[in-house]
Amino acid sequence: MKSRKLMVTVIWLGAGACLSAQDRLTVAVFDYTGVPDAVMSPAVEMARNTFRVAGIETVWLVCPFSRAKPEGCTLPLPPLGLYVTMNVVPKVPAEQAGHTGFALTGPDALQRPRAYAAYTVVEDLAKKMRRPAWLVLGCVMTHEIAHVLGLKHGEWGVMRATLSPRDLDDVRQGWAFTAAEDTQLRVGTSRLVGAREVAEAGRR
Ligand SMILES: [Zn+2]
Predict the structure, then answer these.
(1) How many A from CA of 86 to the centre of ligand 1?
(2) pLDDT for 35-49, tens place per residue?
(3) 202 C-alpha vs ligand 1 centroid, how far in Å?
(4) What angle do CA 49, 54, 55 make, to 5 degrees?
(5) Residue 3 domain-assigned?
(6) Domain range for residue 129?
(7) Is this prediction's pTM over 0.85?
């Protein structure tokens, strides 16, 4: 199973240069927590590599929210609704207690695709599992963004409902999604960024 997945990984890395614009997804990380750069940078790097292995190029913009303007991120973002917002907050709301994060799904999510990661829970989990906080944060962001793109929980990899230390180690090795999940992710990405091309064509 793993050696097959590894082969797929190598092929997708090789094909990375040929990906179309439709496979490129912008992720805006709104950091409301002040995550240290030593945690955020490797977390983003791992998540970016994980999506690349699945055939999706991601562009990550990290907005330290305290320094952003009140209306939001000052970095150049695509029009609202055509990128995924990954909010890193201190805690999840009470109704999500016990979760490391959650994602919006349904019609509302199509207007503003967004997900949340709870950084205090990430830190606690990292301590409990004796894994670096960047690894847990990277896995949680990947998991929640994949929900935004249409994935449900799976039996294996980063989409397991409750991530174990072994799952974290697998993701670190590049074994995050099944081949079927790779396909679903690409369909979900095309649907999201495809809307951008329609919107841009409408403005021309
Ligand atoms: Zn989940």
Answers:
(1) 14
(2) 999 999 999 999 999
(3) 35
(4) 95
(5) no
(6) 8-203
(7) no
**pLDDT for 164 beyond 80:** yes
Q: How many domains does the chain have?
A: 1
Tell me whether residue 135 is in a domain. Answer: yes
Distance from the alpha carbon of residue 201 to the mean position of ligand 1, in angstroms: 34
Q: What CATH number is associated with residue 26?
A: 3.40.390.10
In a domain, 2, yes or no: no
- Distances, alpha carbon 158 to alpha carbons 74, 78, 152, 163, 172, in Å: 31, 27, 11, 7, 10
Q: For residue 41, is it within any domain?
A: yes
